[in-house]
Structure formats: C-alpha cells, structure tokens
Amino acid sequence: MSASARASASPDTTALSEQIAAISRAARAAAHALAFAPSDQKNAALREMAASLHAARRTILAANAADVAAAKRDGLAEPLIDRLTLTEPRLTEMVRSIEAVIELPDPVGETVRSWRRPNGLEIRKVRVPLGVIGIIYESRPNVTSECASLCLKSGNAVILRGGAESFRSNQAIGAAIAQAIAAAGLPSAAVSLIPTADRAGMELMLQRHEEIDVIIPRGGEGLIRMIAERSRIPVIKHAKGVCHVYVDAAADPDMAQAIALNAKCQRPATCNAMETLLVHERIAPTFLPSTIEQLRHAGVEVRGDERARAIVPGIAPASEADWSTEYLALILSVKVVPSLDAAIEHIRRYGSAHSDAIVTKDDSAAQRFLREVDSAAVYVNASTRFTDGFQFGLGAEIGISTDRLHARGPMGLEELTTYKYVVLGNGQIRE
Q1: What is the 3-state secondary structure (H, E, C) of the chain?
Q2: pTM of this structure
Q3: Are residues 160 and 197 in the same domain?
Q4: What is the pLDDT of residues 289-310, one digit of tens each?
Q5: Segments forming the whole domain that contains residue 65
C-alpha cells in the first residue's frame, strides 16, 4: 500500500468536494477577521503556537518517524527523505522561526508612500493582506508551521495541503497550531489543513477561486507545472533551483573553494544548493584539482565538460541535460569557461533564475554579474545557501519565488501583502 493510501483512504468525491468548499468558505470568513486583528493579538497567537509546538514535540517526532519509515519502505529518494525528516534540532528551528516572526514589524496598515495632489487630495498607498492563501507542498513538514506563522502575522488565512509522505507529521503540527489559535481567540479557520492526502483534495482546492486568492506551490518541477496548468487561481511559482557559482579569474582561491564546498555540501537537498560550478579558464588549472578533491572527499559525484576532465582526470562526462538539472543530491556539474561573458550566457541559458554567485576580487566583474544575471538572488563572494527567509532576516519564508509577479526570492511578510489606495479629500469633485 502506498504512503498516500496509508495516510488516508480515497474519500468519496462528493463528500470531499463539500468538505473542501466548507474549509474554503471558513477561511474566507477568517481572513476578514484577521485583516483587522491587532498586532498584539496576532503575536500572542504566535507565542502560543511556538509553545504548543514545543509541548507537542514528542507527538510530532513520533508522527514524523512513522512518515519516514513509510517513505523508506516506499523507496522515496534520499534527498526527499532528508527533507521529510524532523529531529529535535530541526523542531527547535521551527519554534525559533516562529519566535523570529513575532519580533518582525507587522506590515498590515503600513503606509508605503503618501503624497498630496494640487487639488488638495491626500493619497496614501497602504499595505493590506492578500486574503486567503493556498499552499501546496511536498516533503518538508516544517513548511506547515513556517507558512502558518507568516500568514497569520500578515493577516492572511491559509489553507495548507502537504504531501502524502508527510501526512502524519503535518496533522500533528496542525493540531498543535489549532490549539494555539483557539487559545489566542482567533478564528479556528485562520490555519486549515486539507484533511486527506488524496490527490483529489488538491484538485478540488485548485477550483476554489471564489474563496482562495492565490496558490503558492512548493515542490518538484512536475508538481508546480501541474498546478500552474490546472489552477483556476493565480499561482506564484516556486520552481527548481539550478544554482551556479562562478569562480572568476580574479577570485581568491581559498575563498572560492570554501564557498563552493558550502554551496554544494552544506545541505545538498535544498533548492539553493549549487548544482553547477563555472570556473574561468585562467584559474581552472590551479583551482580545480584541489577543489574537486575536496568535493570528492565530501562524497560529491563530479561531472565535467571536456576542459574540466582534461584538468582533472577521472571526472565523469557531463551531458547536455546535466547543465539544467536540479540534482538535490551530492552531484555537481563543472564547466570551464573562457570569460565572464561565457559564464553569464551559461547561467542565462541553463539557470532557473533562483540564486547565482560570483567569486571575484574584481569589482567591475562583480558589478557586471550583479547587473546582467537576472536571478531572484545574485551574490558576490558568498554562498547561494543564504537564499532563505530566515537568513535574510525575514523570520521565515513562504517559499522562494522564481516568478516575477508578484514577488521574487524569499517571500516573507511584506510579500504576503498587497496594497490599496486611501484617498482623503474635503469635498473635491472632478471637473
């Protein structure tokens, strides 16, 4: 029996449709109340949420252990199992993430800009919540608490649909969150979980365009493509991370090696891990041998182009498909390039507009890279692994958008708001 079947038997379609409709309508009503909830009340709910997760940690870890065991029996890929697995330290990170959101300023009601017209009208551009957010995600149960905390703080109701492989974990986390919301006196539908792992639940959720304002998918390329094709609701895509580190001719070799090792090895199953290392031909003969030795020592399978293989014998050949592959594993493609122009062109052709870095002491090269590489996050002399809401000081993140509308990069509180114009007059009429 599959993980999905073990987590929840296939429900009656009519009954499930009515259930999803009820959840969506309740979320819409909750969103109206949350939009006017004072910051103190929202922060109190978040404090309750953090405390509730801590108190329920044994229940959550037991549920997660059952999910992990089932995933291993089902032959789930190792990177996905890593994403699925919760530990005491990871659960502590979840609690700290909520606590960090408490400390952030509430964006709701902020005046972004104000101005006065010659006729005396005062116009203000003011942040307001998006409304009801639907989030569909795979594997990572920490997404449940992170998204709940960010949506609540930004005044949005959220409907969460996690993957079948993390169903037990998500339900345990959701129960702790529900207890916290009730204790804070906020609407129970402020945070809702789709109560089935059956795919039909997701399909029905994507049709609720009258109640849900935006869908944010987090997962593999296939999941995101399917959601974008089938959703009747606007989608903010969080697509794959084919991230690059380019080692320029003017790079500090020790710095470049440290960044490359961190970007690939620190946690390879994440979307901000490096998948391709580009090295300028002038530094490649001295830089690549020791760097590839260190990568191999860390367990990385290295695949290279002809020039990289000529410098370091024994590297497996990289195929055309490798350059656009998000491995999410200890596999790395390496290419020797003749110039900064060639590196930028390679990123433009094969990258996913997620996170890309240059290592260089040449300021003009750095500035060109920043200007011409059109990714959500572009780095100079730093690891791509920093593309993360917590690392950016956003408290947590809904995800990392590779879209252009309505947000790019890590989506925090501000990215979960839109705006309205508030216009103040004293009797003006248009002639």
Answers
A1: CCHHHHHCCCCCHHHHHHHHHHHHHHHHHHHHHHHCCCHHHHHHHHHHHHHHHHHCHHHHHHHHHHHHHHHHHCCCCHHHHHHHCCCHHHHHHHHHHHHHHHHCCCCCCCEEEEEECCCCCEEEEEEEECCEEEEEECCCCHHHHHHHHHHHHCCCEEEEECCHHHHHHHHHHHHHHHHHHHHCCCCHHHEEECCCCCHHHHHHHCCCCCCCCEEEEECCHHHHHHHHHHCCCCECCECCCCEEEEECCCCCHHHHHHHHHHHHHCCCCCCCCEEEEEEECCCHHHHHHHHHHHHHHCCCEEEECHHHHHHCCCCEECCHHHHHCCCCCCEEEEEEECCHHHHHHHHHHHCCCCEEEEECCCHHHHHHHHHHCCCCEEEECCCHHHCCCCCCCCCCCCCEECCCCCCCEECCCHHHEEEEEEEECCCCCCC
A2: 0.87
A3: yes
A4: 999 999 999 999 999 999 999 9
A5: 3-236+411-423
